[in-house]
Amino acid sequence: xxxxxxxxxxxxxxxxxxxxxxxxxxxxxxxxxxxxxxxxxxxxxxxxxxxxxxxxxxxxxxxxxxxxxxxxxxxxxxxxxxxxxxxxxxxxxxxxxxxxxxxxxxxxxxxxxxxxxxxxxxxxxxxxxxxxxxxxxxxxxxxxxxxxxxxxxxxxxxxxxxxxxxxxxxxxxxxxxxxxxxxxxxxxxxxxxxxxxxxxxxxxxxxxxxxxxxxxxxxxxxxxxxxxxxxxxxxxxxxxxxxxxxxxxxxxxxxxxxxxxxxxxxxxxxxxxxxxxxxxxxxxxxxxxxxxxxxxxxxxxxxxxxxxxxxxxxxxxxxxxxxxxxxxxxxxxxxxxxxxxxxxxxxxxxxxxxxxxxxxxxxxxxxxxxxxxxxxxxxxxxxxxxxxxxxxxxxxxxxxxxxxxxxxxxxxxxxxxxxxxxxxxxxxxxxxxxxxx
Length: 437
Description:
This protein is an alpha+beta fold. Helices cover 68% and strands 12% of the residues.
């Protein structure tokens, strides 16, 4: 390649690199638009807690394989070198020849050994325990997935509520600015006093502060959602669902049967009981013997004159525990007590989950009734505010009356959307309690 061709190639590569960097920068600045369903899916694929739980499942799978291999044939090679210090016994083979040493002063051995576990109670129980351990890690993944879905739904709904509040405040701000402009013109014409205009200015300042507060809370909620999604904080994200869509799906009474056996926390406690049972079996299995078979083959670098060591050996080893001064008995008692304790904790969790479900149903019904009441109150306050605003412009109502009515209207809106958020969060808690995958 000539120097000119090389320079052209470098130039082309530089252009391609610049284009790719610009493309990546544009992609990172693109706004990701997410529905609630898409946000759930994104979190399940990118949330760091979920990703770590998936790794725990893989670790558990490999732990099962590792434990299984303990019961498979084991092959080992041992190499040894030895040098004898001092005199070596010599044996006269032929009277006409010097005696021959019985052993080699320098020698090396290579041992090939195959072992096979034939019976071990602890191994059998340990193999069962690793499968339960794998099940626990899988259930922990499901639990973390359900938790992150609930968190994402709560934050998503909170963002929708903040957006609606901000929208109402901005509408009121626009209306107040328009009223202020009209009142200023009337003041300049001498039709009203300056206190009327000052009061409207105070109202506008309050709305500006309220708007700034909601803008900050909205951004904080969006950042929290990015964290829950496992998204880069520099990535722009847009929430596209409408709060009214979620509201339309709400029902006065939440009617679903609660099967505690399908609850993920209850399943995890069940596994804890299984682990306790296996631990008890493990401690009992220590009274049983351990049987293993073996085969050994030895190769010598130098064969001595006399070698009584057989080259190939096959055999069976048996280890029987006899006396441990009561240690095994006490371990069995401890394991038995731990099992009873696990059963009590399981029963307690069952009662607690049933109680939680009944409380959530009651909370949902209460929140729904509050939602209906605040909805009606909000409509009335809006109607009163609009009429008072017209009366104020006609000079029938004072700025003080308008301020009080406006505060009442904004408070009713805040209460209305807070009740919606409470209702949606209660619904999500019930769904979380009922979900098992």
